[in-house]
């Protein structure tokens, strides 16, 4: 069974930085794209950033120039470095991965449990 475990959330002042990590555990799988989504209170979940297995990246316009997504394929881990944080970045951040189980077709989405990021003075 594959699990995604996130870490690194917390409380930070405006202008500060945080680094989120998400590691996939288990065996017998390959990971395609990995990404981060977030959901603020009363709002829909939205894409923050995504990175393919080849390293191509895409970002939401609201975080371009402030957030950087990266991954370590050997560790099945994705990171989100967040800088110049704003109060509007406050949300629960969810890790997402397209996981192909060996011997099966397709790569359905797997989700982490979420980690709270709060930007406040």
Percent in strands: over 45%
Largest sheet: 7 strands, mixed
Tell me the overall shape: elongated
The residue ranges in which pLDDT falls below 50 over 5 or more consecutive positions are: none
Number of strands: 11
What's the overall average pLDDT, rounded?
Answer: 96
H/I helix tally = 0
Oligomeric state of the chains in view: single chain
* Cα-atom radius of gyration: 14 Å
Helix content: under 10%
The SSE string, one letter per element, is: EEEEEEEEEEE
**Terminus-to-terminus distance:** 40 Å
**What class would the helix/strand composition place it in?**
mainly beta
Describe the model:
This protein is an all-beta fold. Helices cover 0% and strands 55% of the residues. The protein contains no helices and 11 strands. The protein has strands at residues 3-7, 10-12, 18-25, 29-39, 46-51, 57-59, 67-72, 77-82, 91-101, 109-111, 115-119. The strands form 2 sheets. Strands 2, 4, 5, 6, 9, 10 and 11 form a 7-stranded mixed β-sheet that branches. The model has no long low-confidence stretch (mean pLDDT 96).
Q: Gist?
A:
With 121 residues, this protein is mainly β.
How is the secondary structure organized here?
Layout: E1 3-7, E2 10-12, E3 18-25, E4 29-39, E5 46-51, E6 57-59, E7 67-72, E8 77-82, E9 91-101, E10 109-111, E11 115-119
Parallel strand pairs: 2-11
Antiparallel strand pairs: 1-3, 3-8, 4-5, 4-9, 5-6, 7-8, 9-10, 9-11
């Amino acid at each position: 069974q594959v699990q995604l475990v996130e870490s690194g959330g917390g409380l930070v002042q405006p202008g500060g930085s945080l680094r989120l990590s998400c590691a996939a555990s288990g065996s017998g799988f390959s990971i395609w794209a990995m990404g981060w989504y977030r959901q603020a209170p009363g709002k829909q979940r939205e894409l923050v950033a995504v990175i393919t297995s080849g390293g191509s990246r895409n970002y939401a316009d609201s975080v371009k120039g402030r957030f950087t997504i990266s991954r370590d394929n050997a560790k099945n881990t994705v990171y989100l470095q967040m800088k110049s944080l704003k109060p509007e970045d406050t949300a629960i951040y969810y890790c997402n991965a397209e996981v192909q189980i060996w011997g099966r077709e397709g790569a359905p989405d797997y989700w982490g449990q979420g980690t709270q990021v709060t930007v406040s003075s």
